């Protein structure tokens, strides 16, 4: 009996080796285990044996085909057999066929042609299972370290998670504070905007009031000037009237003084001569004086009324003149605006004419180029028509020759 054993690494995360055996009894036995740590812990082991009678059992996860039983288990990764563990694929359904061969990876084990008995197979299997059980116990004994590492990783994960949670809570609180501050700032901004709008309205109202007051002040100043002029004219008239009355009064007093002297003389004459009625003379003089005063008063009143009417006419004329000047200023401002608009329109017209002239020149150039292109195309078309006519003539001549040759050929065939 010949036996070959080979060891090879199993393709598993943190994988352990695999064990394979081949013998003349076409028996396959394999053990593979591996452990992987990466957010989790996995441990697996597998044990399998097969007999020609087709007996099989499994523990964990595994599959048996034919006379071969495979046992396997794993955690944290999938167990993929190495070339040394790929056994039993060529085993026939009977498991003990003479033509079946068992291979164990790249090991250079020799296949045994003699067939072993049932007792020899059992002895061989028991001898091979002992080291496999030792391997399995060794693998299962390392679970404490894996559990400790898993607990440590869990504790670290929880600590990191709590730190992240505290950071998240802090950021949430800061976000709420910032939102509250933002709302406060927005409210303050709205209040300031409302105050600004109110102040703008007050400012506009004050400006309008100031403009109206300026107009009132201008009108009041004009009225004051007119009243000053009227006052000066009336004062002059009053002075003139007073002076006239004083002159008349002085003249009357001088007359009355002369009359008194005459009266005294007459009284003296009365005493010496004939009697004279003085009271009648005084009454007559008084009546004349009152009549003269009344006449002068009426003349002064008429003159005053005439002056007042003249001043009113002058004031009205001044107001009309002021309105005329204002109208002239308005007309001048309108004229300036119209002149500016006219200048702007003339500039726009000049620009439009320049642009239109440029556009017309471009279009004329395009028309000239298109006209020349049309002429060239017409010349090319005429040349092509001539060439086509020549080709058509050649075709007709060739058709005639072909028909002639065909007739000649038909005549030869007929002969």
From TrEMBL:
GO terms for cellular component: axon; cytoplasm; intermediate filament; plasma membrane. Keywords: Coiled coil, Intermediate filament. Residues 1-415 form the IF rod domain. The keyword Endoplasmic reticulum does not apply. GO terms for biological process: intermediate filament organization. InterPro entries: IF_conserved, IF_rod_dom, Intermediate_filament. The keyword Methyltransferase does not apply. One of its GO terms (molecular function) is structural constituent of cytoskeleton. Coiled coil: none annotated. Vimentins are class-III intermediate filaments found in various non-epithelial cells, especially mesenchymal cells. Vimentin is attached to the nucleus, endoplasmic reticulum, and mitochondria, either laterally or terminally. Belongs to the intermediate filament family. This is Zgc:136930. The lineage of its organism: Eukaryota, Metazoa, Chordata, Craniata, Vertebrata.
